[in-house]
Write a structure and sequence with these properties.
The protein is an all-alpha fold. It is built from 10 helices and 2 strands, in the order αααααββααααα. Helix 1 runs antiparallel to helix 2 and helix 2 packs antiparallel against helix 9 (276-300). The longest helix has 35 residues, at 237-271.
Amino acid sequence: MLPLVPFVTVSYEAKRVFLFFSVLEFAVGILANAFIFSVNFRDVVRRQPLSSCDLVLLSLSLTRLFLHGLLFLSAVQLTHFQRMEDPLNLNYQTVIMLWMITHQAGLWLATCLSLLYCSKIVRFSHALLLCLASWIPRKVSRLLLSAVFFTSVCTAFCCWEFFTRPDFTVTTMLHTNNNTALHLQRAKLNFFHSFLFCSLGSIPPFLCFLVSSGVLIVSLWQHLRTMRAQTRNFRDPSLEAHIKALKSLVSFLCIYVVALGTALLSVPLLMLWHNKLGVMVCIGIMAACPSGHAAILISGNAKLKRAVHTILLWAQSSLKIRADHKADPRTPGLC
């Protein structure tokens, strides 16, 4: 295996480019998720009933807002305060652990969303599955509370694992056959152990997400086979619902795998290879993933698309009125 070049320091221009893209990704992510949150929270303020899907999207967008804030703090911490030759400072370790916990909470909420898609779209024939499909939309609040509970349990274990370990560095000497000494910093090993421990909490929701996505794929295949047998060529609403749900789930699956893969890759890049440029690239990819998923959720939700269309019409009419007012000053103003 080829050794990686240890980019302990990067140029000032590279830091400026990285911070520019970090601010851009932070702004796009905050705007997209704040839009999802505000559209659904407006209905809560107006005491209008929220659908089960909108309730999950409200919680998911709130989680993503915290996630983007933590990623931006991680970018600032990496470029201005963390030196690669030094042990990881406690602030940077805390930001990374909080990112893992928030990312896991988002995975639980995405799992709730996939279960809702399955209960509303898939046509079950077994009695137990029918009862479960009818139970899920009526008990969304309990599903969300369960997601909060499991995330809290994982948070408690991660905090206990992280903060009860000594934060000082102890050098251990390991002698090999060729009498070379390997210096292992215990603080870095402890942090890597805590990071992997928090990552294990993502396994149960990820498996549930895979199962629900698989059920949707099987249901889509059965529906397409039925359509071919009946030679139906017109547009089928059930088929469109399957495709929209699968686009959302597959996009989230790809985004989650990329984000988790880059997060796991950033740990050895940071602690073993001291490659600061590689860590910057990983953080940039992790920040782009939730922003892209928010855009996909907006494009696949009829309520959010109507809100976007309303905002665009309002902006277009405002610009037209301003242009008319500049062309003819006798035209009354906007106020």
